[in-house]
Amino acid sequence: MRLWMAAVMALAAGSVGAQVRNYETPGNLGATVDPGCIAVAKAGPQLSPPDLGLGVRACAKAGKWDEAAELYILMQLRAVYDVERVADVSAHQAATVLSMQVTESLPRGGQAKMQSAAERFGGTGGARHTAFCKTVKAAGRPEHSPAWMVQHGMGAVLGEGGDGLVKGFKPDAAWKKVLRDYMKCG
Description:
186 residues; mainly alpha; 55% helix
């Protein structure tokens, strides 16, 4: 028997008796509003990343890939802001999990269409990037609850209480930092 096959069989045998338990807390990755397929300019600051994820799905279902890509970018941008303000480091993986859930939920062939739309969006300083930055800046900093991320962390699972936010958090400064460093909105 080949060595790799023996290793796979040993791993499988060892996991037969293993118990895996998935814990979910209320609000974990939860959307509160389904905005439908909307333009970024209509995505007010109260929409959370999971809300925007529903918008991405709606745009994809409608075949509006450029709108889907821009909402996806906004979803990621607001998730990065939430990483800045949520204290529980284990909760930060919510951004990656949400991104995977949205991407995996796209219709057949959707990932390639989303990739093409992202390429059309272009890079830093391009016309669409510049317009996106202008729109996002005009909308102001996010006002949504970060509960979707807080509830994803071990602090929520263990019932540690509190709001889960970084003490002394400065929202305006954090938003400017995310726009500058993550989105490269000068």
